[in-house]
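Re: the multi-chain job from yesterday

Posting the exact lines I submitted so nobody has to dig through the queue logs.
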Amino acid sequence: MFKPSKLHGEFFMQGDIACAEGALAAGCRFLGGYPITPATEVAERMAYRLPILDGVFIQFEDEIASIAGVLGASWAGVKALTSTSGPGISLMNENIGLGMMMETPCVIVNVQRAGPSTGLPTTFAQSDIMQARFGSHGDYGVIALAPKSPQEMFDLTITAFNYSEKYRMPVFVLADAVVGHMTEKVIIPPVEELEIFERVYTTKKPGDYKPYELDGKNVPDFAKAGDGYRFHTTGLTHDERGYPIMTEETQWKCVPRLMEKISKHVDDIVLLEERDTEDADVIVIAYGITSRTVLPAIAMAREKGIKVGLLRPITIWPFPEKRITELAKKVQGFVVPEINMGQYVLEVDRVAGKYVPVKSIPHPGGGFHKFDDIVKAIEEVAHG
Amino acid sequence: MRNEIRLSGSGGQGLITAGVILAKAALLDGNLVTQTQSYGPESRGGASRADVLISDEDVYFPEAVNLDVLMVLTQKACDKYLYDMKDTGILIADNTQVKNISLTSHNIYEMPVTEIATEKLGTVLPTNILSLSYLVKITGIVTPESLRKAIRDTVKPAYVELNLKAMKLGMKLAEKSQQETER
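And the result, structure tokens for all chains:
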């Protein structure tokens, strides 16, 4: 049977499987998860591949335990992944907050399907944009990436691992059932050619190490499990030693930093794709699969003489506020089609709405926008 | 040039596997290919379909909207997708189950593939490959060499022989249909 440890070459690969391969290429050696359509194939592939690579796969009793296992694996020094869909994220949210508070690197893949509740379990939506941003209680910064193809399921899963280690936090890959279940050509470069950000370990001796001491850095260094470091970490508000200090003063030191470690490095994290935005009068903002399905409509509008461009946030969170503000000052308006009832558009409107009109094109899921609806919205914005 | 092919029927008929095989074959022929799928929550019996988009340039829209080729293995799939076909589209129907096609066109091919698979191969299992091979021969959408390679590459080793037999049979049936059409 075909059992290579490291894949490279050209493949015809499903998005979910490419995601698993991306994780493995990034050095992930643990998956804790629970099967759910349309994300099951990620776990299935990892269950097959991880034992070959001396990794560990655990199917837990549910998603709550899965994310807890992933956080534990990460503290043990292993890059860890979980894959699920919206209902699984709903269950994981409490411990996602724990991961944010303890600053635990890991990657959470959400292959989105249409909700609420069980909704349309085997079809697609982009329904968890705001759940990714605000799912757990309290304030924290978020990084989320939206792939549009199996190739990007591979590439962006690696990027997500890099960000998670660099910024010490759970990072989301916000895929959807179309991209997850789509099969296309995927090029996997040799592992030596990939840029992999490895975990930064402390150089201090065990007695001198404090797990949340910054030493002027953006995030604290890790201690290597098994190397004799004894320390404490907790979901409670904590000081540099990781011990709970439940005062207003410590809260002020602890919480704003969880946001600032992202907000001060937005330019490093934000990835954008732009098409014909230079001369555009109208800009369509679309992410994930929608950034592909709107292209025929954009071409139709261009044929009608309207100068339309596409801005595609590859990084959904943090929000690409700087670029959208720049564009808002020179275009006539924005059109925001998304396969939810209007989530990302709220943020676009907050930033661009004070300059120009922002038009939402909602869709509850289970299908794509009709070309005509998008063309009509573009025309409305173009002609005022 | 973009060719849109939809294989449709019900869950358990192996249509998504057939879609992946067709897509792999098209890729081997040097095309750009996107394969997408749609199915219900049931593991068997619900509606199921695989779309294969074969193009010489990037495929943006990932579903078939204007079908060049439609294969239907159930009446339900036929009723649902018939009108997504182009005027020049080719319809391939398994008339083991599809009894009523509400369209008249020269481009309709009817063949009781499920029945023939059961009768000639002793099992219903390779119906997907039998019908896909029939489709490939009728449309010429991919080369037989690439199809054979894609089958070998995709199905479990124990089933390769059976499926290659099904491929041969499907191609032969298609030749027969083509001769009948010419007459």
